[in-house]
Amino acid sequence: MLITAFTILGIAVLLGSVLAVLYMREGAAAPSWRLAALHGLIAIGGLGCLGLALRGPPRGLDQGAGSFGMIAAVLVALAAVVGFALFSARLRKRRLSGTLIGIHATLAISGFVVLIAYVMA
User: Fold this and answer.
1) What does the UniProt keyword field contain (predicted)?
2) Could you tell me which residues come within 8 angstroms of residue 12 by beta carbon, excluding any fewer than 6 positions away?
3) Residue pLDDT, tens place only, 51-62
């Protein structure tokens, strides 16, 4: 289940990268809200799988990485909260805050990097 969560969240990270590139292109229209919704749904699915995987036996205790799974889950959950705020602003046709996008990306990527360390432990 942990590998499934890792794969799903990896897909969400790639889709988020595409959204970031589309958003930063000068003169281009904002990315479709449907693409953002797909990104969010995939990420929430990955977070759910990660939550299920963390219910299993602990791993990485001998390497000191026993809490990495929970840390990754908290970071991804915080990114989901910020992402929901971004999505709701997008649906209300407001300009997305670059600061919020940066916070969302930082939380999500940090969570994914910690998850990589947890999977490799």
Assistant:
1) Membrane, Transmembrane, Transmembrane helix
2) 39, 42, 43, 46, 108
3) 999 997 777 777
